[in-house]
Amino acid sequence: MTLAEKILAAHSGRERVSPGDFLSVRCDLVLSNDVTAPIAIREFERLGVPRVFDPTRIVMVPDHFCPNKDIQSATQAKMMREFARQHSLIYFEVGEMGIEHVILPEKGLALPGEVIVGADSHTCTYGALGAFATGMGSTDIAVAMATGEIWMKAPPTIKFVYHGKPGKWAGGKDLILHTIGDIGVDGALYSAMEFQGEAIDALSMDGRFTMANMAIEAGGKAGLFRVDNTTRRYLKGRTRNKYQVYEADADAEYIRVIEYDASRIEPQVAFPHLPSNTRPVSQAGNVPIDQAVIGSCTNGRLEDLRLAARVLKGRRIDPHLRCIILPGSQQVYLDALKEGLIEIFVKAGAAVSTPTCGPCLGGHMGVLAAGERCVSTTNRNFVGRMGHVKSEVYLANPAVAAASAVLGRIAGPVELE
Amino acid sequence: MAHKGKAHKYGSNIDTDAIIAARYLNMHDPAELAAHCMEDIDPDFLSRVKPGDVIVAEANFGCGSSREHAPVAIKASGISCVIGKSFARIFFRNAINTGLPMLECEEAVDNIKQGDMVEADPATGTITNVSSGQTFRSKPYPAFMMEIINSGGLVEYTRKRLSGAK
Questions:
Q1: Which helix (H) or strand (E) holds B159?
Q2: Backbone φ and ψ of A46, nearest 5°
Q3: Is residue A215 helix, strand or coil?
Q4: For residues A367-381, b (16+ Cβ closer than 10 Å) or e, as one string?
Q5: Helices H / strands E in chain B, number of each
Q6: Residue B66 and residue A219: Cβ atoms within 8 Å?
Q7: What whole-number distance in Å separates Cα of residue B129 and Cα of residue B108?
Q8: With a threshold of 0.90, does the pTM exceed it?
């Protein structure tokens, strides 16, 4: 069995599972946020169940439009807060809050071998830790909150192998953008993606989170990494809970195996309006930009901010554009502060914000006007994603976003060397 | 029950931001969401759509976010079912769970034009292009999913299951 099949079998009381099997899967962690929780709460109440199945396994994070951007968002956040308190759920208030997919691993709430479901498509992020994690809708989450179980169709697995070392300034974001560019936004539809190879073994935890996070951008149900010493080091001190490590069998069946030479992958840029519309940054041409955003559940971790700081140190952001930097959690913010990264950002002329999903989905903290272009370390560049229908989003890694902010156009950091 | 109405055609990779933009996710009332359905890619949709109409789309309809607001907005706008070449995974689940029928049929999508009168029966999978007289058959639902659909959605299905377990 593949890694995904192993975890699903263990969570559905079966010896083995095969792609296409319908399973009732036990959930270790159930997640929602200020945008999806209100509907989940409404549906939970329609179920007529007095209590959630286990309050220690249900997390709610007010991150999308919080700190509240308007009265309606405030109303939704209030509804979630009250439900979380009433049922004694795990809840992170503004001030302690971070972007859900940054904060859950950081707090040791997402662990290897677990099944994690969330009413947020980027729930797949936790696959970086060797969990089977997948996004669902609010009604699914309502049922999971009530019963601790969810129906699932076991997905087939596609194996991606990355040989060699990525090119200079290229990392997890570039490996995954290149992959999505290759297979398309539905290239892994309904499938689990398993990431392996020398480049993956050498990749940091933060780089792995970035890759797993974007599995959904290829249509994937989950994106999984095997647990190794990098994973174990990351988990040390974050959790005292025991976790089960699963490994894919040597004779596991994959529906496809796709191999890449990572050394040929340079920093990538996904042009509007699909994450698959990628090209190497050296072939971006002259694309002037109005805004750069560095942050999000994709690239809002410490390593991402360090990369941006390496580029921005001692430089000034082009006065014609806005650069907005959003640490993904209070811990990331504090670490960045201690390392002097925040000072580098402010001196360079960037706005540094409290953690929020904010601009990634055109919520607040950097919404685009008609005709504006933004280079962003986020995960989606659909029409109107960050604001006006006639605005454009270019996806890239934090070093490219920072270099672009300095140069006023889409550019790689090599241009500043 | 068969649904009958005019076809609204769309291309491939229609994402959930196009179906209902994130700026409206500060609401969750179906009627309020429906008032902004498709507005970024098809501003005339709301003035054209009539109860019973169907959406006919190319591959990977509903890709992107997990927002259940997307199928909810489509359903509340009057659309009776969506016929597509393929559907994004989370959107498909959400639609089944909230009672918006989805029919997967490449041939039907290729042979239905914008504005054609279409009749679709999710129970049998029969799709008829009334305007051209052609009939198509969609991929059948697995029995398990049909049970959710017949119950009226995931909440109703789960309620039935929970009361049976007592």
A1: helix B154-165
A2: -70, -25
A3: helix
A4: bbeeebbbbbbbbbb
A5: 8, 7
A6: no
A7: 8
A8: yes
Q: In 3D, which of A132, A329, A165 has the Cα closest to residue A263?
A: A165
Residues of chain A contacting residue B60, judged by C-beta atoms under 8 Å apart: 185-186, 189, 219
Query: Is the CB of B162 less than 8 angstroms away from the CB of A190?
Result: no
Give the start-end residues of each E strand in A154-219: 157-163, 192-196
Determine the residue type at A358. G
The residue behind tokens 């169907």 is: B54
Q: What is the ipTM of this complex?
A: 0.93
- Chain A within 8 Å of B23 (Cβ-Cβ)? yes
Burial letters A211-245, b for 16+ CB under 10 A, else e = bbbbbbbbbbbbbbbbbeebbeebbeeeeeeebee
DSSP letter assigned to residue A359:
G
Asked whether the predicted pLDDT for residue B1 surpasses 90, the reply is: no
Q: Report, as an integer, the average pLDDT of A345-351.
A: 98
Interface test with B, best of A385, A386, A388, A395 (most B CBs within 10 A): A385
Please say if the pLDDT value at position B165 is more than 80: no
Helices (H), A87-157: 100-106, 138-147
End-to-end CA distance of chain B: 32
Q: With beta carbons less than 8 A apart as the criterion, state whether A264 and A168 touch.
A: no
Binary contact (B22, A119; C-beta < 8 A): no
Q: What is the pLDDT of residues A377-412, one digit of tens each?
A: 999 999 999 999 999 999 999 999 999 999 999 999
Q: Radius of gyration of chain B from Cα atoms?
A: 15
User: Torsion angle, CA of A15/A148/B65/A324, rounded to 10 degrees?
Assistant: -110
The C-alpha atoms of residue A403 and residue A394 are separated, in whole angstroms, by 13
- Amino acid (1-letter code) at residue A46: R
Type and span of the H or E element at A153: strand A149-153
Under 8 Å between Cβ of B10 and B40: no
What is the Cα–Cα distance from A217 to A121, expressed in whole angstroms? Answer: 9
